[in-house]
Amino acid sequence: MNKKHAGGWLEDFFSFIVNRPKTVVILCLLIMGFTLSFLPQLVKDTRSDAFLAPDNPALVYRDKVKEQFGLSDPLIIAVVNEGQQGIFNPTTLELVRWLNDEIEQLDNVDSDRLVSLATEKNIVGSEYGMDVREFFDPVPSTQANSESLREAIDDFPLYKGSIVAKDGKATLIVAEMVDELKAEVTYQQIMAIVDRATVADGDQIHVAGEGAIAGYLGSYIDADAGRLNPLAGLIITLIIIIAFRRFSPALTGNVIIAASVLMTLSVMAANQVPFFVITNALPVILIGIAVADAIHIYSHYFELQAENPEGEVKELVVRTMLEMWRPVTLTSLTTVAGFLGLYFASYMPPFKYFGLFTALGVMIAGTYSLIFLPAAMVLTKAKVSNHFVIKHQSKKSDFFATVMILLGRITCTYPRVVIALFAVLAVSGIYSSRYLTIDEDRIGTFHPSERIYVADKIINEHLDGTGTLDVVIETSNVEDLFLPENLQKIQSLQTFAQTLPYVQGSTSIVDYLKQMNRALNGGSVNEYKLPDNANLVAQYFLLYSASSDPTDFEEEVDYDYKTANVRLNINSGSFQDTKETVVKLEEYIAKEFDGENIRATLSGRVNVNYHWIKDLGQSHFLGLGIALFLVWAVASLLFRSSLAGLFTLIPVVGSILLVYSAMVALNINLGIGTSMFASVAIGLGVDFSIHTVDRMRSLYRSVDGNIDRVLERFYPTTGRALLFNFMAISCGFGVLISSKVVPLNNFGTIVALSVTTSFFASMTLLPAMMKVFKPAFIDSSHLAVSTPARSFARVASTVLVIAFGGYWLLSTNVYADEKMTASEIVQQVNSVRDGDFVTRKLTMHLMDRRGRERVRETFGFRKYYDNEKHSVLFYRSPANVKGTAFLTWDYPDVDVDDDQWLYMPAIRKVRRISASDRGDYFLGTDFTYEDIKLEGKLSMSDYEYTLIDEEVVDGVLLYKMGSLPRTKEIAKELGYGRTEFWVNSSNWLVVKADFWNPKNEFLKTLEVSDIRKINGIWTRHQLAIKNHKTGHLSRFVFSDVDYDTPVDDGVFTQRALARGR
Amino acid sequence: MPKLCLAFVLMCGVESSFAVLDWGTIRDADFSATIDQDLTVKKSDGSTQKFQTTIEPRWDIDLTNNTRLVGIGRIRVDNESKLGFSGSNEHVDLEVRELYVDTQWRSAYLRLGKQQIVWGQADGLRVLDVVNPLDLREFILPDFEDRRIPLWTANIEVPVNDVWTAQILWIPDQTYDELPERDNTYAMTSSLVVPQAPVDVPVRLMQAKKPQRKIMDSDAGVRFSAFLGGWDVSLNYFYHFQDQAILYRHYDGGAVSIEPKYERSHLIGGSFSNAFGDTTVRAEIGYSSDRYFLADHRDTDGIVRSGELSYVLGVDFQGWRDWFISAQIFQSYLTDTSDAAVRDRVDVTATVLLQRYFMNEALKAETLVIQHMADNDGLVQASLAYELTTDVQVNIGLDLFFGSSDGLYGQFKEEDSISFGVEFGF
After folding, report:
1. d(Cα A382, Cα A251) in Å, to the nearest integer?
2. Mean of the pLDDT values across residues A752-776?
């Protein structure tokens, strides 16, 4: 045969492998062993938050809120009693107290923030004013006391629905965790407490809440995986044995599976990528894929052996590999392309990693199939089964081949019918895809029979809801929340919110104040309203703190009474249910909390979920498009015909369309678990068509253009192999159908469906189309005979071109998730870290319009004390100002003047100087005091911001923003009528700004350059301001910037000024 | 003088060794200097009052992480020598101005050596700012920094608690005010400070008996300062020799002899300042237990002893564009009644300072007016300073005295002058 001599280096390569099988096998096992050493480092991350990129604005803001108010995703423990008295009986109440005390003692439970009937306090009027006493002080021990408690709760609207059901039949204990990553352990501990509790007749205990979900999800999925993966492996082993009637193929197949799966997980661990919820699907997919190559290679090998019974094992192996390396590489590459589509299109880290690492696993499987497998085949002296030989020689087909031949005959006879059938399916698929709903509900991950699912439903039925949406209200000044107009706004917000769908209740400082007002005014229901002046509000808080702990309101308002949180309880977690609420609420707060003195921002679990789900649909279709494109490109280039590439896509596209129809019919939503099916289906399904096209082309060459004869030879050989391939994959995914994790279940179903359709389409539609249309590419004889070497080179270079091209094309757009709004950009700019303290040298270059330059060298320190900023500047040169030092204590409140001192060496004294007006120029430069103080941040209280444009400069995306001072007074004070500035989207720094004075004259331009990361913090090293009116230029050059060395507090004192250090 | 020369040579040696800057002990060393060239011309007749070159080198040597050695020297060369130097040479004056070690021990800051210490919140008027003596050869015309005479001091600042810091001073240096000689331009003639003898009576000036004992005659004081509720406050106590010798008058037969003696006093007082919007308010108040004032012939030894209560109240206003306006009022009240004192029982002086910057602080214009109410005399000082380049500054100034010729200021009415100067920095 020609191939023996024209093999070239590929032949040498495979010969090398078969001649040193032991070495190769040991080497492969060693590499595997080494990589596996990283596996123990793998960590699990089951949090919802893991699905968002860490710099996503919604997540960043939520973390800020968490820091301020300590709100996180709680564990909710419900005690339910459906009896006549509901929970208001001594036994149930005692149970509540016992549970509360037990849970309080857990390490990871924040005991300060535990909320239940046992911790909450009643506010009643007394002759001295306000009496604040715990509801359980003492625990009601008689039915009469329990009834009094019921009355007390009835009298306190805030608690009805939030911790006690309106019908009195359920009560909640809400626990927040200190460290959310320990959710699983905490959940287990709470379940253990629940199991230990003495539960009387009629009482039920349920545990739910996002905290519980995160906690249970981990072990839930582990239990599942622990069952699924061995099952999948077992089924596949059985299939291989049935196919080849030999054990050795099963053994080597399993080794390749192990290599692929375990090495991928180890690489993940080594790169500190956690194991997410969806990563559970990865081993199952890899099992199915890894084994396919082995099946094809063995199939071909056994065929050759059957044809040449006396042939040498080594020689036959080489011949097999020379024939099979191409389709194996092709299928691996196209599968990788499919998963890389997922990587490029996803905006959620777990999906990106899933795509990336599955692609890696496929590459490892492909590589091991090409290197380890031939060596193993030689070592195990793989011998074809007699059964196979007999069948082959008698030209009789076994059961499976017979099935395929039958299929082939139908296709050959009625090709047009087949095509028409698929056309109908395609149309219905396109039509159905319009009705696809995007929805996601975390609780839906669990099977309805699970305790946590039941608990969630019961809690949402009886009480205000387990879903939380927070509205954070920020005012400009300390104690602004005492002002009645601000409190009224909050009250109106709550009233409005409760008209929105699924919002069952809300909690804010307003509710407490209303109760206090009522308590102090005789207890009449009419007095359940807000006090009408700020002093009264202040007094109420004072009175409260006299009888109780002022930190009781920690979750509703901050210490300065500047920021408040309104928590809305929502009784559905589903995206579709809550999206209208989120959107309407955003509109309301944009209108009512317009930012001058009071601002509002949405946060909380429901808000975060809304943000990451809403783009899911777009991401799904984008991923689909990218994967299809990549596969087409690879196939076209390797078959050297774009039509061939298109043909390889047809079965896959058909299968996806069918899945859409099925999803609509079966009411399966496009959610987190299911949205990635498209890339997976493409990656797997395309293997069938590639093998088909490839084999048909090579067969065509050997039968001189008779398509029927091609098909005749195709079905029993490649067709049979593909059948086993199909069975392996579909059984692998079929196993997922038995999963109790609902999304994985759905995922398994639809992927199995899609793979089945791909298979049948490849087996019927493709050959039918080839027969009917007789495309040119099937005749590859006109193409120059390529040596395996050249083919390999072409394959490799194509892959590289596509990989780099795709990456480059998409790298700038990879995070094109949401269109950013002006306020989001401002938030991003203001969240950029600038270090708790910094030491730096500053050289000021001042140049007048004539070009005369004066230089001042200074040395400065800056440190934050909560929101207060202390900064000091020491002049080092020139000699006539040396020793001058300038100290500022910046207070965050706009109305509180900063304190400034100046040390002048000439008078050897520290002078107290008046806080300069914010618009005054700083020490003779063109920067104002406010410019210096802000240090690149943007003031929300002074300006309104708009997004003007997006510009790309030197490959970087810049957001062009405009700002207008909120009032004329502010404009005059700061000296700016309007500004335009550019924000660099990669580091969120303002890099250029233009300023106009209040008379709209072009005043000055700021340019920032030399931006580098120092100690991990983006630092602007050069700032230049050109004053267009005076022609004067100020250039600030920062050097020796150090964020690591701690700055001594003593440097911000007057005596430090005099000492010059 | 030999001591000073030695110190200077030492510093020069240190400086030149920087060429081989690899001393293991020195972490960082900095050298800078200014050279001033000054020409002062008398307004009335255009004669040159002063043509002086001043070189002030400064060394800052960081010996360790928190220890620094600072040395400031001064060389003055005056062609005209009408003003008089304290040393033997009329034209050249060489001086180690300051030489001290800054260090830190635990939470205490120490500055040991020759240094200037300034107390109080007033500009120019001295209530609490009496720690260092003054060089009065040019009256009050030069900057305070140049007029104050540094003393060998142990200066320890230690925080007392979270709020208060204590500064303890111990000055074993018996250097006092340097007065101009009888024939120098700014020799004092006012009867407020110079005893007036009747005509034709010979006056014999005896040698001043300066305190000599380093320890027993040293000055000591303490200051507590804090930042309370936005106010910078301080409480001060100083036990010291007054910096000018008290001129006791004796009648010796037909002659008058003046016996200068140095006397001690306790000073207790405080200061506070705060900023309100565009205005800064500052004040200091002090009570000296034993002050000595010239008396007329009615008194036996020509000196009246009395306690003195004095205060300064100052307001700085920065609200109007680039102007800086500062006004102060100084009042001194003698607690013991005696008609014999030459000065009034209640003595008031007011000052007003107007300052404005132009051209991104390159040009500074300043006018200071001092008015002494008792004699209706005073001083007007106007100046313009312009930064030509980073290291070169040119300035022009005008000093005008007005009022009664017997007044503290008016006594120099004839000496109105215009000055021109260039300053180079290194």
Report:
1. 11
2. 85
